[in-house]
Each structure stands twice: as C-alpha cells, then as structure tokens.
Design a protein that fits this description.
Length: 323
C-alpha cells in the first residue's frame, strides 16, 4: 500500500555514535568488513549501523551504502533501512530513499515495532518533502503522531508535527498552514512542566510555526517565558529587542504595561528601554512578550519580530539549524 511508502533516517534519532571517521578508522574498516562475515546477523547489523552512521556523519553517503551492500538480509524492524534512506537522500536520490522506507516500514509493521514505525514515518517526511509530495508529508506526519499517541509520547508528536510544517512551508504553504493549526492545538495542550523539560522542542515549534497563529507564541511566552539562559532557555535576554516590541503596542496596552512597570518599580510612560531592562533582569521576559503580542498594533509584524530577535536559535534532530 502507498500508505507505507515513507522514508526513514533513524540514525539521527538513535543514541549518538562516532562523530567523524578518522583516517586510522577508515584504514581498519576493510578488516572489520572481513571479520563481520563470521558474525551472526544481529551482531553484523549493529556493527554495520555504527560504520554506516559514521560515514553519514562524515557526509560520505556512498561509503555508507557500500557498508550496507555487504549483506542483503535484514532483521525484522532493522534500522539499516533508515540509514539506507538517509544515504540516498544525501546523494540526491529521493526515489531510492522512498524505496528503502517502503521496505523498512513493511518490516517494522510486520514486527509490530511501533518505535521503528515512528522513526520511519519521521524520516518519510523528509523524503516526501524532497519529492514535493505535500499529501505524502501530511500522511507521514499523521501516522507518526498517531503512533506517538499510542505510546503516550505527546512531546515527540509535537516535535514531529513541527518538522512536517517546516518541510511543507518550502513548497506547500496551504497545507503548512492547515497542519500548523493542528500543531497549535497540540502545542497549547503541553503543560508548563513539559515545556520547561523540553526547551528545544518549544524552540523548534516556534521557528517552524510561530508566525502562523497567535496561540503558539503566546503559550510559549506564558509557560516558558522565564527560560532565558543560553543553554536551556527559549527566549533571549535582549532588553533592546523587548523594548522595540513594547513600543509597537497600541494605546490599549497602557493598563497592562503600567501594572508590569509597577511590579519592577518604574513609572510607565517614560519610554520602554529601562522598563524592558528591568523586566529581563527580573525574569518577566515572557510576560512582557505576551503583552506585546496581545496588544500589538501590527500583530503579524510583532510575531515576526519576536521570532527573529527574541527566540533563541535551535537545531533540528539531524543537527541542521532551524533558525
């Protein structure tokens, strides 16, 4: 069934492996290949996965495919299908990647490996995106999210939907906006504790879809707005950017801003530079952002300003920047 014809790169979701293959490791690989022939299939697949992932990390997809070609047999639910798909994608061969995903997905379904199915569907999003197949991206995302729901992985589901929205925005803005609305519903159901425990997911959602609807940015500001440290935060400690946001509010924001100014001991109505500095210093960045968005004279411009200047950068699960 075409429903299962999705791509996979589970290598980016599995525990970290060697970052880059050194020259000495490369020279020893021939010996490893020879010895691997005597191992049973499970041992060989674990070792082949390690070597292939190393080649992929080195941006050498042809070498990764050479590793996989040493044996044609695969265990049920094998992660090697995902590596093969990723290698084909890096070689600019989305059709080959789609075939690897189709085979891998059938194997994962047969073995009833729900986690493997999620990983395959997640990477199918990238393959369908490369093929400019908007419905395929949506179908892959829906299957992955359904599987996440069955496993009780709400944060993972949100992260996957953010990836799908980001892919769709490159070529199918209508479907991206529709899926972004569904993402907003799921995102706003994440608890404060959940968001604070997964700041990178929050940032990926903001960068993928924060300008599509008011609710995403507002929820992040309200529940994780005080997370501003460089290593684990969501928002930047930038009083100048915050002052510009507040300066773009309408006159109706006066009472809310006056109350906030009173909390930090300054008089409102004398400009926003000092107020913004004290708000950042006192951990009220999120509350100030929420007011700036709620009372923005130009809401679309305000959302874009927050995303460009006040949301911290983040990378995707594959290490590529989303910012």
């Amino acid at each position: 069934s075409s429903r299962w014809a999705w791509a996979s790169t589970a290598w980016s979701l599995l525990p970290g492996r060697r970052a880059v293959r050194s020259a000495s490791t490369a020279s020893a690989s021939a010996g490893l290949r020879e010895a691997s022939q005597d191992w049973d299939q499970e041992d060989w697949e674990a070792e082949a996965l390690d070597r292939a992932q190393s080649w992929l990390a080195s941006r050498s997809p042809a070498d990764a495919l050479a590793v996989l070609a040493e044996r044609t047999a695969r265990l049920p639910g094998s992660r090697l299908h995902a590596v093969e798909a990723q290698a084909h994608l890096l070689l600019g061969d989305p059709e080959g990647a789609a075939k690897a995903v189709e085979v891998g997905t059938a194997s994962a379904i047969e073995s009833e490996d729900r986690l493997a199915q999620i990983e395959l569907a997640v990477q199918a999003i990238e393959v369908k995106g490369a093929l400019r197949d908007g419905p395929g991206v949506v179908s892959a995302a829906e299957w992955a999210v359904t599987s996440c729901d069955l496993l009780g992985a709400a944060e993972r589901a949100v992260d996957i939907m953010a990836s799908a929205v980001r892919v769709l925005r490159a070529f199918d803005p209508r479907r991206a906006a529709h899926l972004g609305g569904q993402l907003a519903v799921r995102f706003t159901h994440l608890s404060r504790e959940s968001m604070r425990a997964h700041p990178d997911i929050v940032k990926r959602v903001l960068h993928a879809a924060g300008d599509l609807t008011d609710t995403i940015l507002h929820h992040a500001a309200a529940e994780a707005g005080d997370l501003t440290d460089a290593d684990g935060g969501v928002f930047r400690e930038d009083p100048f950017a915050l002052a510009r946001l507040l300066d773009g509010t309408s006159a109706a924001a006066g009472p809310a801003l006056g109350a906030l100014a009173g909390e930090v001991g300054v008089t409102s109505g004398n400009g926003y530079t000092e107020l913004a500095r004290l708000l950042v210093r006192s951990g009220r960045t999120g509350r100030a952002i929420a007011i700036g968005l709620d009372w923005a004279a130009e809401p679309t411009r305000a959302r874009r300003m927050v995303l460009d200047t006040l949301v911290q950068p983040v990378s995707g699960p594959d290490g590529r920047s989303w910012s």
